[in-house]
Write a structure and sequence with these properties.
The chain is an alpha/beta fold. Helices cover 52% and strands 11% of the residues. The protein starts with a helix and ends with a helix. The structure holds iron/sulfur cluster.
Length: 468
């Protein structure tokens, strides 16, 4: 992503009043729900600390837990496939679909599958892929990507959904929620019955038992994993927990932080393919464990980022996300977690602008149920960007800035020069736009307070001398 791509997306989002209103309303609702639900936990900070300890321990011993999980899945009759890259993951899934001569696939929500551009790859080979989460179904019809981790169609209205659904229906549908959901239910039900393969994501994988745990609200996840004969689970390699004891903590924190619910409507635990005496479930189960850049983060100063449980809570409190929505971030994960994880997974050289999409207010850290200090990681990424970007002018400017601010004499000199240099741009005590490059960006979209005629220290000295 070039700088102008990012700036273009941000400007587009800032001019879209509907988008900003919709994002604000939805994030307000999610934030209020979260705050109300957290009151039901006796000591939320203790829960956070426990969750942080669980995730940090698990990621530290990830190799061990992944090995135990793999052995257990295989003992339970399932198959595990490792994918170092997105291409390898797609190849595994493609091969499984081909082996089953699948022509139709139903999918429930999976952010990792967005990383793989899975739908696009399967559709290229004439395999129909149908998203069955209502929000995902809407954005699939609109040919868009999710704009929120939890609420993918946050930017749509009833009217825009009615337009999309009417096209599929071949007749005008009213812009009313019951009519629209009834239509989606009718279409999707037949797709569930026709599909040869079901694909789900994975909220958590349990090492001790080889189980896959899914938190869903619409019931589509259960249809996806019980109706088609073959099921594929796509999991990011970090989505593991040692046992059900640790799941208990996550079960209390994830829905509360994500949607403000005590618990999601459905919590499904998959323990391998259908057994002989069982009435339903897939006959074949495949788990694709995706690395796609995660092992590069392991052991680095960014390791804590792998603790993320994808609750989306940091998005809802972020003053930047709340203004620009998700698409401006340009890749799969938006908001503060996206600004950190996108450059780590897909390259800082490509996504170097994202760590600057933050006010560093640390509201994300405060909201994070596993206490990831995202604001600190954003600063680290900014440092890395300057260090490795080879932008000599920027390095020189910040070098001078650092020197000036660490010496009292140089700081005083800089102030004197600055006061004179700013005169052509100052109006009513503010520097209002029009600064020359390379500092023009600073005042392009906001006013900058002009340097005061006298600094606090100068006034203080005068006061002490009794000059005023
Ligand atoms: S960083 Fe924290 S708040 Fe943000 S999605 Fe991940 S777990 Fe949730």
């Amino acid at each position: 992503m070039t700088k102008s791509d990012f700036h273009d997306r941000v400007s587009e989002a800032l001019q879209d009043d509907f988008l900003r209103g919709a994002v604000k309303r939805a994030t307000n609702r999610l934030r209020t729900g979260r705050v109300n639900q957290l009151k039901t936990l006796v000591d939320f900070q203790e829960w956070r600390e426990r969750a942080q300890a669980i995730r940090s321990h698990t990621i530290l011993h990830l190799d061990q837990y992944l090995e135990t999980f793999t052995n257990k899945v295989e003992e339970n009759g399932g198959n595990v496939h490792w994918a170092l890259t997105a291409e390898e993951a797609v190849a595994h899934i493609h091969r499984i679909c081909k082996d089953k001569s699948a022509k139709s696939v139903v999918k429930s929500k999976s952010m990792v599958s967005e990383e793989l551009h899975l739908n696009h790859h399967l559709e290229k080979d004439d395999i129909e892929v149908v998203e069955t989460d209502l929000g995902e179904y809407i954005i699939q019809l609109a040919n868009q990507t999710p704009s929120h981790i939890i609420v993918p169609a946050i930017h749509h209205t009833r009217e825009s959904v009615s337009d999309l659904f009417s096209e599929v229906a071949g007749e005008r549908l009213p812009a009313e929620t019951p009519a629209l959901t009834a239509f989606a239910r009718k279409v999707l039900r037949q797709k569930f019955l026709d599909a040869e393969v079901g694909i789900t994501g994975c909220n958590f994988a349990i090492a001790e038992t080889g189980s896959v745990v899914l938190f869903t609200n619409e019931g589509n996840g259960r249809m996806v994993n019980s109706l088609p004969d073959t099921q594929i689970v796509i999991m990011g390699m970090e989505r593991i927990l040692p046992s059900f004891i640790e799941l208990d903590t996550m079960l209390n924190l994830l829905p509360r932080s994500a949607t403000g619910q005590k618990i999601t409507t459905y919590v499904s635990v998959l323990n391998g393919p259908r057994k002989q005496n069982e009435a339903d479930g897939a006959k074949e189960l495949h788990v694709v464990i995706v690395d796609n850049g995660r092992s590069r983060i392991l052991g680095s100063k960014y390791q804590e980022v792998l603790n993320c449980i994808r609750c989306g809570s940091c998005l809802n409190v972020c003053p930047v996300y709340r203004q620009i929505g998700g698409h401006a971030y340009g890749w799969v994960y938006p908001g503060p977690i996206g600004a950190v994880i996108t450059p780590l997974l897909d390259g800082l050289e490509k996504w170097g602008e994202l760590p600057y999409a933050s006010s560093l207010c640390a509201a994300c850290w405060d909201a994070c149920p596993v206490k990831i200090p995202l604001h600190e990681k954003l600063l680290e990424l900014r440092k890395d960007k300057v260090k490795y970007s080879g932008n000599a002018a920027e390095k020189m400017a910040f070098g001078m800035y650092a020197r000036a601010f660490s010496s009292q004499t140089q700081y005083a000199l800089l102030k004197k020069v600055g006061r004179k240099a700013q005169i052509p741009w100052v109006r009513d005590g503010k520097i209002r736009g029009g600064l020359p490059a390379p500092i023009s960006e600073w005042t392009k979209t906001r006013d900058f307070p002009a340097l005061a005629k006298k600094s606090f220290h100068e006034r203080w000295r005068e006061l002490k001398r009794g000059d005023n």
